[in-house]
Design brief:
α1 packs across α12 and α4 packs across α6. The chain is an alpha/beta fold and about 325 residues long. β4, α11 and β5 form a beta-alpha-beta unit. It is globular, with a radius of gyration of 20 Å. It contains 14 helices and 5 strands. A 5-stranded mixed β-sheet has the order 3-2-1-4-5, with helices on both faces. The chain has 2 domains: about 200 residues, Nucleotidyltransferase, domain 5 (2-Layer Sandwich); about 100 residues, no CATH class. The protein starts with 6 loop residues before the first strand and ends in a 22-residue tail after the last helix.
């Protein structure tokens, strides 16, 4: 079913702030639903009637319980409540770190996929995890130690990898990273000068822009209704709107609501949590072929995803994913 509604309701799942390599989740999902409020309310009531939990507020974990498997499949299946009227943008967090580091230090993200896919095999899992953690610390706004330590730690990790893997296919990328220390120093100086409008490592803001791009395709105009959260300050909403305008995206504004007061946002919350769990299972090769197949039509082709085998299973049906970003990277000194 499709609805020609001007408003699209959004919510997310898997937010760990800027801690993308040591947080509780390895996937960030931003979901959106386009339908009238009364239709969404009827579907939420039907979900409650089917599950019959005494909980006041339903979340995705209610639907993900094995005893409610039939309700979950009904929600996602063709002809179900949200089929054709919902969408989800996925971010593989570890790849997001590599992508943003390559974008910052090398001037573009074209090497990110090569480094991300070959790194664990060439460097070994332990050194690869150390590299990811060092890159995460370099890029994050928060600094718990000495001001220069994030830069020093990252380039120590790069130098160790250069010495140990100088004859591998990744040696040229490591050399380019080693030469990028001035860019890293400049970046950290901007971070320390603060305040930071758009943190480089927070996937929410670019995901919202990608969501607007999806729903406004073909020249349509769209307004986003989003669950309230601290990240979405008036200044950052202004950044989203200006970034969309510059990209030619037909976004007419972003309005914040309380999730439990808007059934459309509740449906988006269900989809975000469900998608994050299914996508995370795919990353860990705990694939449920039925659920993966049901989710696939909802997945944004512009998702930020580096795992080749996982994308083959979960990626959008046109197969265009793999870091096909439709919006520019957020920069810590972006201004509106």
């Amino acid at each position: 079913m499709t609805w020609n509604e001007p408003e699209v309701a959004c919510d997310e799942s898997g937010s760990d702030g800027e801690n993308l390599t040591g947080g509780n989740t390895d996937v960030f999902a931003h979901a959106s639903v386009r339908m009238p409020v009364d239709a969404a309310a009827a579907y939420v009531r039907e979900i409650r009637d089917r599950i019959r939990s005494p909980a006041e507020e339903y979340k995705a974990n209610h639907l993900l319980r094995e005893k409610h498997r039939a309700v979950l499949e009904w929600l996602l299946e063709p002809g179900g409540p949200i089929h054709g009227t919902a969408h989800v943008h996925l971010t593989e967090k570890a790849f997001f770190v590599v992508d943003r580091a390559a974008d910052l230090l090398l001037g573009d993200g074209t090497e990110a996929l090569v480094l991300f896919r070959a790194g664990p095999r060439v460097f070994g899992e332990e050194r690869w995890r150390e590299f990811l953690a060092a890159a995460n610390r370099l890029l994050r706004v928060r600094n718990d130690g000495e001001p220069d330590e994030p830069v020093d730690a990252f380039f120590r990790a790069v130098d160790e990898l250069r010495r140990a893997h100088s004859r591998t296919a990744l040696a040229p990328i490591l050399e380019r990273l080693a030469a990028a220390r001035p860019r890293a120093v400049s970046y950290r100086a901007r971070v320390l000068a603060g305040p930071v409008l758009v943190p480089v490592l927070n996937p929410l803001l670019p995901a919202i822009v990608s969501t607007a791009a999806h729903w406004s395709a073909g020249g349509r105009r769209v307004r986003l209704v989003h669950d309230r959260q601290n990240m979405l300050t008036p200044e950052r909403i202004a950044w989203i709107e200006e970034t969309a305008r510059r990209a030619g995206i037909g976004l007419d504004g972003v309005r914040l609501v309380v999730a439990r007061e808007d059934p459309r946002v509740q449906l988006a919350d269900f989809l975000a949590g469900i998608a994050r769990k299914i996508a995370s299972d795919v990353l860990h090769r705990r694939v449920d072929p039925v659920l993966t197949g049901l989710l696939r039509p909802y997945v944004d082709a512009a998702s930020v995803w580096g795992d080749r085998d996982g994308w083959a299973l979960i990626g959008a049906e046109d197969g265009v994913g793999e870091n096909n970003r439709s919006v520019p990277s957020a920069d810590c000194n972006s201004a509106v």
